[in-house]
Amino acid sequence: MKEIKIFCPASIANLSCGFDVLGLCLDNIGDEMIIRTVAERGIRITKITGADLPLETEKNVAGVAALALINEINPGCGFEIEIHKNIKAGSGIGSSAASAVGAVFGINELLGKPFSRKELVYFAMKGEALASGSEHADNVAPALLGGFTLVRGYEPLDIVQIESPSELFAIALHPQIEVKTVDARAVLHPMISLKSAITQWGNVGGLIAGLCTNDYELIGRSLQDVIVEPLRKVLIPGFDDVKLAALKAGALGSGISGSGPSIFALCKGEENAKNVSIAMSENYKNTGISFDIHVSRVNPIGVKIIN
Amino acid sequence: MKEIKIFCPASIANLSCGFDVLGLCLDNIGDEMIIRTVAERGIRITKITGADLPLETEKNVAGVAALALINEINPGCGFEIEIHKNIKAGSGIGSSAASAVGAVFGINELLGKPFSRKELVYFAMKGEALASGSEHADNVAPALLGGFTLVRGYEPLDIVQIESPSELFAIALHPQIEVKTVDARAVLHPMISLKSAITQWGNVGGLIAGLCTNDYELIGRSLQDVIVEPLRKVLIPGFDDVKLAALKAGALGSGISGSGPSIFALCKGEENAKNVSIAMSENYKNTGISFDIHVSRVNPIGVKIIN
Q1: What range(s) does the GHMP kinase C-terminal domain occupy (chains A, B) (predicted)?
Q2: Which residues of A are less than 8 Å from B202 in CB distance?
């Protein structure tokens, strides 16, 4: 029996302009998982702490992702999975992605790495599909690969890794309210104006150029969303005010993390990030809604083994 | 009296996924202009060769752009402009942009460079507006700045320069047919699906990342347009066939240059570009339509003084 312990990072998807394609990996917010090789074939979830989630393999995000992987290579052994959740389900910072990613990464390590991290995205997406109803990679890709990731396309799956400028920090403020992914999807319009789409892809181009050239101001100017944020922000009480507070405190940009309710901000430097975090906290207290807030550098590595 | 001679490069706008925001500067295709300082204030177009264009300042793209510039700073002299066109009007490789850019660049040089190249984009756009009916920067920006340019946004105008990978070559095949910009605009739909917009901005992100990291394969995979090309290609006889011929001969990608009718391809290396150019020429002969074809490295500098 061999056993490893894994840190499964949270992630911020969309990043304003990059709806459904962009994401970044957080560093000090994440779940832990223990995965062990056992003689009996198959996948068993043996323990879950920190969340009320199903132990049945087929009903658990980590279980489904793990099954997708072992069904591909049919190893001569099985795996037990313990999940210790720190990322709250439905927070909008990639809780289900962290579980899916931890499972496929851990099993791949125990099997001697038959797959690259990029190849693991495919299996982790199968777990994500259980949580959200559709196979998407904008959280699992950054959690697996670290830094920023771009899902260039799905047919075929094409994930582009983009290194983060070294001084980039992220803040995630999680209001303790529930925004269901299905509701966050329902407010979107299936048709959008060509004009606003052009604005959006100009900003996507600007954000990628800014990340590639360490141009923090360009990153800030590009963190705009004229399509999704105007529709979704109504689901998040106090959104406009806390975003404004972040910008006033010097954040490069701010927006909705994933499908919400978490609100993210990006900052240059740790000190600025701490100031922005204080400003956002002070501001959000006005809503009367409980919240968590996290400050993290962008995680350059992604999911990893810890002792 | 002081006089300078200027090379005004052609340019390729849109580049498949980057409709209305991306462009690149060509190197060995362009107009020449002679601009001289004269005592009498104002702008006079004294000579035009190679095209049947109006000499009246207010009806000429170069004249309108030049007026926009001198109205801003009110110099104590005037300027005479000679225009020697090599880029055919309506070809889709930035003919009007070249004229607008040459005028503002030349006058700015003669005045001792009161404006940066980036600042000149604003004045050149005023000339473009005369030709196309709207102020757009996707041709004038690359012609002024060289390399690739991204128009991140117009409010305020935000032009991002992106250096070209050194081995990148462009081909422009110009069928001798007329596609009016107004007709090319008319086939577009004002509303598009969110799904196709996401595909498009994934590709814009991929193209920028590919350019920034010299990843030629990623550049190639990103040169896709699911929104504009399917609607506009019907205006260009033989488009699908010649695009396929380019790709078969090893082009990274191919699409419509600007609003057409020119067809562009991007290639890695001069040898491959020449082969692709031959394959496109051979193929396009089948249409029976006369055409020009140009092979050019991406011009890293943009408009320049010659002699």
Answers
A1: 208-286
A2: 20-21, 150-153
CB of A50 closer than 8 Å to CB of A84: yes
Interface test with B, best of A155, A160, A231 (most B CBs within 10 A): A160
Bridge-based pairing state of the strands B22-38 and B78-84: antiparallel
B160 contacts in chain A (CB < 8 Å):
205-206, 209, 218
Q: What angle do CA B298, B62, B80 make, to 5 degrees?
A: 115
Give residues with Cβ within 8 angstroms of B13, minimum separation 6: B22, B23, B94, B138, B139, B142, B257, B258
| pLDDT recorded at residue B262 | 97
Please report the domains of chain A, with CATH numbers, ordered by start residue: 3-163+300-305 (3.30.230.10), 168-297 (3.30.70.890)
Q: Which residues have C-beta within 8 Å of that of residue B271, sequence separation ≥ 6?
A: none
ipTM of the prediction: 0.96
Nearest to B119 by CA among B149, B153, B159, B79: B159
pLDDT score for A133: 79
pLDDT at position B193 is 98
- Report the residue of B22, B155, B158, B160 to disrupt the A interface, i.e. the one with the largest count of A CBs within 10 Å: B160
CB-defined contacts A:B, below 8 A: 130
pLDDT at A183: 84
Which chain A residues are closer than 8 Å to B201 by Cβ?
Answer: 17-19, 21, 197, 200-201, 204
Enumerate residues 6+ apart whose C-beta is below 8 A from A119: none
| CB-CB under 8 Å, A205 with B152 | yes
Cβ atoms of A88 and A51 closer than 8 Å = yes
Percent of chain B surpassing pLDDT 90: 93
In this prediction, residue A132 has a pLDDT band, given cuts at 50, 70 and 90, of confident
**Is pLDDT at B133 greater than 90 in this prediction?**
no
The answer to whether the beta carbons of residues A243 and A263 sit under 8 Å apart is yes
Name which of A162, A188, A202 is nearest B150 (Cβ-Cβ). A202
